[in-house]
Amino acid sequence: MTRALMLSAALWLGVLPAARAADTQAPASAGFDSKFVQTRTLPGFSAPLLSHGVMRFDKTHGFYWEITDPYHYVFEMNGDAAKETLPDGSVRQLKPEQTPWLAAVQHIIVNALSGDRSDLERYFAVAVTPLPKGERVDLTPKPGAMAEAIVSIEVTESAPGHPEEIQIKETSGDRMDIRFSSATP
Amino acid sequence: MSQPLSAAARWAIWAVSLSLLCGAAWLRLDHPINTDILAMLPAEQGPEALAAATDRSRDAFVHQVLVLVRGDDGRATRDAALAAQHTLTAEGLRVDDTGATVTQVLTLYKTHHFALLDGDQAARLSKGGAGALAADVAVSLASPAGVLSSFDTDPGGYLAGFLDSLPRPYADFLPDGPFMSALRDGKRYFLLSMESQGSGFAQDSAMQVTNAVHDARAAVAQACPGCGMQATGAPLFADAARSEAQTETLWLSAASMLLIMVLIAYVFRSLAPHVLAALQLVASVLAACAAVIICFGSIQILTLVFGTTLLGIAIDYALLYFAEYWFGDADPSCVMRAVRPGLYMGLLTGVAAFAFLLLAGFPALLQIAVFSIAGLLEAALVVVLIFPVTLTTPAQVAAHPAVGWPQRFIVAACRPSRWRYLLPALVLLISVPGWLKLTTSDDVRDLQQLPPELVQTDGDIRSILGQIPPPGFFLVEGEDLDQALSREEALFARLQPDLPDATTLGLSRFLPSQGEQAASLAAWNRVFAEPAALRTGLTHLGLPAELADHMQTSWRSASHEPMTAQSLFTAAPDLKRFVITESKGVALLSTVTGSKDIDAAVLAKAAAGMPGVIFEDPLAHIAATFHRIRVRTTWLVVIGYLLISMLLVWRYGRREAARMLYPPLLAMGVTLGALGWLGAPVNIFVVVALILILGLGRDYTVFLREGGASRRSPALAVTLSALTMLCSFGLLSLSQIPALHTFGLATLIGILASYLSAPLSLPPERSKTP
Fold this sequence. Notes:
By secondary structure, chain A is an alpha+beta fold. Chain A has helices spanning 2-15, 99-114, and strands spanning 31-41, 49-58, 62-69, 73-78, 81-85, 91-93, 124-130, 135-141, 150-159, 162-170, 175-181.
């Protein structure tokens, strides 16, 4: 039975690879507040999907992710409590057993954005490239199930803790660009 | 008239018989000492699947070793965990390796992802059609978690949801390279889930695990001086129990032997009794061990510890012989003839009493019975064959005062006096409230002494992992696998309201039933039957209609067949462990885990009334088995005592036999009363002690009856026997193992009572003072 449980845990991380890098404890970052433009490139599609939104987090209010266009969607998480506001306006409370992976995702995003690399280094090979203004942090998954799903994560910062863009390349061919504007770290 | 055997022939017969016995045992030897207390229980009765499920559940438990490496610095702690894992695997432990399996199972799940909607999702799509799917796609694209799921293989994120719903072993621990890790209170924890090879309770295997953990701890300290390591698992407990039992055996045997030797030296003042008694004891223990190994392949640790008590029993017959030879009236050549009636009668009744334990249906009692019968027979054989040809010249030791007082006690106790009736009546009166205070215990946990530090470590690790071992398991039977899966799904659904935080674990969590998969496929079919509606739904949300075409193409090219058990087992063979094939159908093994203790009654209630579902609580089952055996053994003792009564009636007549049976029964009553006053529960081992008390009390009355109160040697033999019994059995009351402690306490009280009441078996007479 234990082996079956280990298998299911590994499977879970196989599809949500970022979560394997995460812990459910809240990151120690001070806070972040920014608008963003998300560009999602899907293989076989002529044009990428564009969406606009707002992301912020702080210790008091937790993690807030809102898509404002082309439709409205909100994800909020504070501690173990999480809820979604769906495009039709309905609110969906997420079950406690569903929140760990959501917490994991918000954790890794927050870590990547806040410049806290110590935790990320456990799971990624971290390479920092100086840029004329700021630097680029390349996160390459270490060998394992995650490497089968994620090719790389790139974070471009104007300064440590001041992210401008995140690019996530997946082995499926999907690609995600999140470009931040008017960030308030 | 037949010629008596020569000395050489007697030695040869004895040596050859013992050698043959030991040789046969050597050939049969599987592993010498078995510490598995569960193996002492009778084989499972009832449905074959239940027995198989019990074995499988037990195997998973006895092999698992959990190791936690902790430290402040994540990287250094990881290095320490790697060092620990390297050491553990190098020393024979197996590590969970699911890497290759994951890829294969993921591929399978991706292939059949349209069949994996859960009941709620299928209902939502069936009811909402294309609009519901469009909304779900929008959410999956918008959700922060959705950024990491592939639209191409998982539009709507349903597969991710399915994988997320799979049971996880430890809530806060996430797979982390070869480990699972978590951050708690600023410390990084790495979990190594290992399995021991071989039987977790076998001596070699348990020692191997203990040594490996010891070495791994050293490796951790070397790799990361500030890091710590904790480990738990059944093999560690088994090895600690074995080590403690062996240590106790050693000192109990040594103390017993020393006390007996001092006693013999004081009374007989000669080297010969030491040599002959040692020869007899070694031979009887050897024969006893050999007989057990021949019958069972190995010897249980508790049988071995009980075997130390045989030191007392085996010397009993020798003392009878020595007392007659050194201080009796018979010529050396006639000693055997003088002691033979008492010796044979004692042997006959002793073997008869133990033989009844063979019917108890309890492996531990079977072993003890075989051990004791073989030991008694060998001890008697040594006395009969060897003693007469070694003690051939008249003893040169004068009767000193200490030799006389046992007889004086017997004679004094046999004088007509109202105290012969009043004193036993008074003692019984005091015992009665004790009887009313008596409690019984059949819980196997009460029989063991678990090392406190291991218990503490186990608790700490379980607390950190947030997983308490389940109180039992379910057996879900069906005519075929799919019916069993459906029943398991229904069971888990029934459990959910009562145990919302618990994790259900069974094959249906990995393989939905055919019915559920069919409902999932039907829901998708309903959605894709209206291509235009899906396009409209997406565009209404501002998403391109092209997504609908992509999903439509994906649906057309995908497999519309449900995932089969065979394909899943090919990808993940470990999942076969959930399945037990029966002669008529299939059974599934499943359970529930959680971060808090789960009430077995809740699980039993959920199973009640569900067709084909059985909840099995192994500890309760074991306790029930102990109860059944305790009751059965008690009846066997009663029947055995009646048989012995008939033997005594045959030999001594009804009146004398009744008088001889009275003291042992009195001793038993006193023992039970004392146990009640002391708050010691009556368990199966107390019942065994009562058997011994009855047997010893009967021996004393037989020896006295055969020897008579007017002779010195029988009184001396009975007294020495009681003292040596106290040295061996009584010492067990000092044991740290609860089962042995209670056994020792009962025998200590019982032997004292048996000895003091033994003169009551003789008729009152105004004998001459010796």
